[in-house]
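Figure 2 data, in text form.
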Amino acid sequence: MNIETRQCKDGSMTLYLPDLDETYHSLHGAITESQYVYIQEGLARIDSDKVAILEFGFGTGLNALLSLKHAASTKQTLSYCTVEKFPLQPAQLDTLNYAESLELFGEWKRLHELVWNSWEAWEMAHRCYKWQGDFLELDLPANSIDLIYYDAFAPSKQNEVWSTEYLTKAAEVLKPTGLLVTYCAQGQFRRNLEALGFEVSRLPGPPGKKEMIRAQLK
């Protein structure tokens, strides 16, 4: 798979797929976008000592690393399940500067050393499950997740994963009043969420995006 490294406006790096003409993170700022969408408007909204997170789109691991950093400051314990169909290779990950930017060298190394398809101890009391496969095939108990990071490639690139089929799976594993956050604010995606019983809020987006979505099961 042909992958290039690009520098974002905030100084952090991201990866670019020429064949798809898509980046893993916003070129306006990889760390800036992830911190705003998934931590500030997601994890920081969960008032619980123990938080079960499901991430659809592990990608570079940036969202997981930022979640770990946030949990250290709030004393939250994370149960972090993340899904990725096509994991990146170590050489590709080595071109990124997240560990340096966040001063989380050991945590970054450990995250990418965790075994796939198995629950693993992850930095102190946390645990992590990296699932390599299709999201629809992930086996999670119903009503077990507090927060979903929906971070797949854009609907213009992977329209099927923003469909009702995938979102039904997301709704099934969320706890009552559980949250879903994403950078995407596409109209059809929003209507799909509403049809499944989500209350959808359109929020100001991160740099370069007008809006983002935070949705809560009613």
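Caption note: Residues 29-217 form a domain with the Rossmann fold fold (CATH 3.40.50.150).
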